Amino acid sequence: VFGLSSAAQVVLGRGNFGQYLSINLGFGIGVTLGIHAAGGISGAHLNAAITLTHCILGNLPWRKLPAYLIGQFLGSFTATATVFGLYYDALYDYTKGNFTVTGPAATASIFSTYPAPYLSLLGGFFTEFTATVMLVLGILIIHDEKNNGALKGTQALLTGILVLGIGLGMGMNTGYAINPSRDLPPRVFMAIAGWGMEVFTAGHHWWWVPLTAPTLGSLAAVLIHKLFIDFHNQPVPESGNEKGQTVVETS
């Protein structure tokens, strides 16, 4: 809700109610609050790519995967519907009732990601892959009690700042989906709400890239962390186990 509404305000306000930085801050705030809301209950699984990675690594039972994915889909879909209702009048005024994916009055990019006109499909894939590597690597470092983990209680804020940093440095090419759960449900909603099936065909059928590239990037980040950091970590002293247990479970 925070991320999409900030994007809507920037686009529909024609730059008078925020800039690109506003969108990045909105998503960072949303991630921080999402982790605080669900961290103690489910581990704050907000990203399907990370959830799938946990299942592949054996950290999460496969039987729980459908419930997490359904929850992520419904949360993202409901957020899109909420922002759509919140800004419906502004959307109608901005587009004169013609919701389009491309063109001078395009509004689809408010809700899901699309590649920049200059970007090749391979370049877009690499962008999403790299941005997700940085996301997951950052999350692993923040929660790495054996290395130099964050102070207890600051992990959510630092993860939000991490998302902000990715947006500030790697958002121009694709809008940094870095999360299948953040991109597909809004696309489905838009197809139903008036934008049509062009949401799936635009950008050389771009829709599948935010699903696959983040998943592969998440797995690559785990491998990088394991090879270059985790294997070289010192064992955690016995006195530090109690603190580390809670943080690892939350992550």
From TrEMBL:
Signal peptide: none annotated. PANTHER family: AQUAPORIN OR AQUAGLYCEROPORIN RELATED, AQUAPORIN-7. The keyword Transmembrane applies. This is AQP7 protein. It is found in: Membrane. The keyword Magnesium does not apply. Pfam families: MIP (PF00230). It comes from the Eukaryota. The chain crosses the membrane at residues 20-44, 65-88, 118-142, 154-178, 205-224. It catalyses: H2O(in) = H2O(out); glycerol(in) = glycerol(out). One of its GO terms (molecular function) is urea transmembrane transporter activity. The gene is Aqp7. It is a multi-pass membrane protein. GO terms for cellular component: basolateral plasma membrane. Gene3D superfamilies: Glycerol uptake facilitator protein. Belongs to the MIP/aquaporin (TC 1.A.8) family. InterPro entries: Aquaporin-like, MIP, MIP/Aquaporin. Keywords: Membrane, Transmembrane, Transmembrane helix, Transport. Its main location: membrane.
